[in-house]
From TrEMBL:
The lineage of its organism: Bacteria, Pseudomonadati, Pseudomonadota, Alphaproteobacteria, Sphingomonadales. It comes from the Bacteria. Residues 39-188, 230-252 are annotated as: Disordered. Residues 43-59, 177-188 have a biased composition (Basic and acidic residues). Residues 90-110 have a biased composition (Low complexity). This is GcrA cell cycle regulator. Coiled coil: none annotated.
Amino acid sequence: MSWTDERIETLRKMWEDGHPASRIAEELGGVSRNAVIGKAHRLGLEKRPSPVKADKSGEKAGSPAEKPAAKPKKAAAQAPAQKEREAPKAAKPQPAAPAAEIAPVKAAQPLGQVDAEIEGEEQADAGVDPAVPLQPKVPLSARSDVDQSSTPAPRIQIHDPRPAPRPAPKKPMRPAPRSDKIKDKTSLLDLSEKICKWPIGHPGEPEFHFCGEASEPGFPYCNKHCAEAYQAQQPRKDRPGRTPMPNLPRPR
DNA sequence: CCCTGATTCGC
DNA sequence: GCGAATCAGG
């Protein structure tokens, strides 16, 4: 699997959107998480707030607080070479990362509330209700894990518009004549928290794009697609994957 | 353990 | 350039 223009573009967008490398890898398919990270760095993408980035506000005074530049653990393998590359650092006038801007959907309300305020372009902070920890997964990926740790309340089912996550393993990726034809379509690059991210078509296809309508405040989709995405749990017995299993006595 | 991103280095 | 192996923090 090579890094085509589109794949790189997807990687870029998702990376900047704060998607974990593992998810990006899944989305792209055919590559590992490491590959994604490696590529991201090679592309010169900004480093994202990682769990590893112990951003201690105020190192210990007088403490080294200095990492000897990487961890020369297996440095033994490269004895004669002695590649001393360190300098390539300060070279990014890039201002702080704006990534933190996008809030990844905090909560959702039961149906009905959704079609409430459709019009009003008021993008005030949607009434985020911490009482309903619903974390709808963007259909961007084929995640099917419905996590509702302790909220048996209104069962919501995510309706993934893309039943076939990885349909084309060996598809020769079209040249993608972008920037001209898709001018009127919402591309991955046009996504923002204000527009509907409902995918139309399949990634990789030249016609693939996103809904683009104004999204519901606090939701990743427009009113119409919210209705599609968040549906009351329907009787599903043929669900092989992980079934919510409401009140099953959990052994331990 | 799991997760995450970062880095190194053989290919 | 690529990415597995590895590291390191949460």
